[in-house]
Specification:
The chain is an all-beta fold. The protein contains two helices and 31 strands. This is DUF4139 domain-containing protein.
Length: 461
């Protein structure tokens, strides 16, 4: 049911529209709902939702106007009509009613339910008819009398919002070469529905294994039921003009499943995950869909310290090492972008941390920063800073690592350097494949012990 509260700071029409998700009425005497199921739908993780639907239409020869039912809030500039011997010359669509005032006006004269409290107990609901809006109040006919409801009233209005589509549709101006029945196919985008991948894993430090499951969370904020016989979730970067990216969504119970057996299909620049049996998500609902089989990766936990040569001072600075988890995507399918949360396999109810990954092809590395290590700290200070003729600079930095834990740890130390800098000397052997314009060391720090690194870098300003 669509529930309604009136706030005196708003006009009644605007207030009544705050929590509405439209659907065609399902009560006796209400108009029949518009088409609720379309042929195909594709949801992109960049926020686009593409609908495709075909209909047999009887057309006259020449110019004419026909009604086309919609599923969701149309973006009129995206509409495409495909038909042999028929061309689209224009269209007319109602402006999306995000506040719901138009939906309220359309409900006048139709049945509503009045609810009080939870609306479950006897006497907590009454049937009525919405007869009008009066300033900041609404007028409802109940039991042969008119009642005026305001924000102070104990009753609120509700009506069905779990089936159907926006009955307004769109009017198409078309030109047909000849009269007869034609198969028309419309492709368009709607606002609201979107999806995001959600990865959940469990890491066992003893075995070095990360077990990972991947779900797609579908959020239908499009104001109408999202129902299609065929459906895909699409991962990848697709540019959109004048539209924002997807918003974070919460996890929900699984109501559908992806075709995990066939895996995602590459379209050249994106990947499409087919949903087995299509898609059916009521307006305002959220569904979670498994889009790939669980997979176990070989992973390693490392500790990471990264600083710039320019940022060091003669005052001792103490910091905690970052906790990082690294693995290669050895699964035979790409990992779509989304949040990834990792639980600790060696401790009950233990969370190692959460991070976000980008779209990751097969074989590509994944590096997650999951938090800060409590027991692994570092003290860093400037030992020497000198200048010479010709713009020559030299700095000596000392870093002392402390491990207060009961197990040895390897710490990756990265020092970002000026473009022309070279390491003149270092007390520990560097790692050869460090990041560009930097120096990197992998230092083993014993349990309850320390490790000291001193290096000197020179460069020309």
């Amino acid at each position: 049911m669509t529930h309604l509260s009136i706030r005196p700071a708003l006009t009644a029409a605007a207030a009544l529209g705050l929590a509405l998700s439209w659907s065609a009425g399902a009560q006796t005497g209400d108009p029949a709902p518009a088409e609720a199921t379309v042929d195909a739908a594709a949801l992109y993780n960049t926020g686009a939702a593409v609908i495709e639907n075909s209909r047999e239409v009887e057309l006259a020869a020449g110019a004419q106007t026909l009604d086309w039912p919609l599923s969701g809030r149309l973006r009129p500039e995206t509409f495409w009509l495909s038909a042999p011997g028929v061309s689209l010359t224009g269209l007319s669509a109602a402006r999306p009613d995000d506040e719901g005032s138009g939906r309220l006006a359309a409900r006048v004269g139709r049945s509503v339910t009045l609810l009080r409290g939870a609306g479950d107990a006897a006497g907590d609901s009454r049937e009525g008819r919405l007869v009008g809006v009066q300033g900041e109040a609404v007028l409802v006919q109940v039991d042969g009398r008119i009642e005026r409801l305001t924000d102070g009233s104990p009753w609120r209005i509700a009506w069905p919002a779990d089936t159907g589509s926006d009955p307004g549709g769109v009017q198409l101006d078309v030109e047909a070469e000849a009269a007869g029945t034609r198969a028309l196919t419309a492709t368009y985008q709607i606002d609201g529905p979107r999806w995001q991948a959600s990865h959940t894993g469990r890491f066992d430090a003893e075995t070095g294994e990360l077990s990972l499951t991947t779900m797609a969370v579908i959020d239908n904020g499009g104001g109408a039921r999202l129902s299609a016989d065929r459906a895909w979730l699409v991962a990848g970067e697709v540019s959109r003009a004048g539209n924002g990216g997807p918003q974070p969504v919460m996890m929900a119970r699984s109501e559908a499943k992806a075709d995990a057996a066939s895996g995602p299909q590459s379209t050249g620049d994106t990947y499409r995950y087919a949903l087995d049996g299509g898609i059916d998500v009521p307006a305002g609902a959220t569904r979670a869909v498994a889009i790939m089989a669980p997979h176990t990766f070989e992973a390693s936990r490392r500790y990471h310290l990264e600083n710039s040569l320019y940022s060091v001072t003669r005052e001792t600075e103490r910091s905690h090492a970052a906790v990082r988890l690294r693995f290669d995507n050895t699964a035979e399918v790409p990992l779509p972008a989304g949040p990834l949360r990792v639980y600790d396999g060696q401790h009950a109810a233990g969370l190692m941390g959460e991070a976000t990954i980008g779209d990751t092809p097969t074989g590509a590395p994944v590096n997650l920063t999951l938090g800060a290590a409590f027991d692994i700290t570092a003290e860093r200070r400037l030992v020497d800073d000198s200048r010479a003729e010709g713009g020559q600079r030299s700095r000596t930095v000392e870093i002392t690592l402390h491990n207060a834990g009961d197990a040895a740890a390897t710490v990756d130390v990265v020092e970002r350097l000026p473009d022309t800098a070279e390491i003149e000397s270092a007390s520990e052997t560097r790692v050869d494949d460090g990041p560009a314009n930097s120096a990197q060391w992998a230092l083993d720090v014993p349990a309850g012990g320390d490790k000291r690194l001193r290096y000197t870098a020179t460069w020309t300003e």
